[in-house]
Amino acid sequence: MDLLEQIVARAKADKQRIVLPEAEEERTLKAADKVLADDIAELILIGNPENINRLAKEWGLNHIGKATIIDPANNPRSEEYAAKLAELRQKKGMTLEQARELVTKNNLYLGCMIIKSEGADGQISGALSTTGDTLRPALQIIKCAPGVTCVSGAMLVLTHEQQYGENGIVVMGDVAVTPNPTADQLAQIAYTTAATARSVAGFQNPHVAMLSFSTKGSAKDAKDKETGKSVYIIDKVVEATKIAKEKYPDLKVDGELQADAALDPAVAAKKAPESGIAGKANVLIVPNLEVGNIGYKLVQRLGGATAIGPILQGIARPVNDLSRGCSVDDIYYMVAITACQAQDAKNN
Prior knowledge:
Blueprint: H1 3-13, E1 17-20, H2 26-38, E2 42-46, H3 49-58, E3 68-70, H4 78-88, H5 96-105, H6 107-116, E4 122-125, H7 131-142, E5 152-158, E6 169-173, H8 183-199, E7 208-211, H9 234-247, E8 253-257, H10 259-263, H11 265-271, E9 283-285, H12 289-303, E10 306-313, E11 319-321, H13 328-346
Parallel strand pairs: 1-2, 1-4, 2-3, 4-11, 6-9, 7-8, 7-9
Antiparallel strand pairs: 5-6, 5-10
């Protein structure tokens, strides 16, 4: 059974309630039909019921009747959701009328209010919406997980090199959200990416490597010519490792490590013989978004790896973002991934 099959199996074993706020979009509705046919999750579709049912018939979708369909224009709980949203955003100046507008005309806000009211466990959007559109209501309504202030994105990277990572699988973060994290944010990214490795990839023992171009002091930060201060590249990773060890004592983490020292036991024996992580890492934390995005795409294109994600992390209940170029299968598997994250969120 490959990783995606394992993720689907875990989702089926404890079905979660997942909101699809873009339910009238073709790929989304076709993925929903497949999810319902395979009994992976309970789905809440937001959209005009007549349109959804008409499209389902037109596209030969036979399982949409199993979903709960919520019409934002005729929702008996609209006033309840509007009042709650206005209360949540009162300090930011939101009026009740503005809240009503959002919960009746913006499906992403409505979906997050359903989650906030414990009517659902997670949400997926992005086939029609931008990342900002997806994240904004999630951060305003659901907010970050306890002890976390930094949202990030992890990528599951499935390689053909089974001697590395977890039988060839590594989880990499952040590849999607925070351009240049501080040391504290980088420590949080390490913690949340390890959680994703457990809940989604099924890793029993995440081993987290904080990556840099130096291993245990083999290189030093450059100095700014005008101030004489460190440019804070390697030092940031060193500080993030220290914070992560102090803040999350159960987290198995070490750094700073070069990628080869993190993954290859032979290199680790030479470069970091005292490290308990070097040569065993299955979770890789990059120092900034530029490195993460370039890194996974190089492995994907030149190494023939499969990259799954990004999987958003750090939100109290899972809200995931799709590429606007996503396929039906992408949405199908993201439902299963979101369900696994929701299971984990309930247990923590």
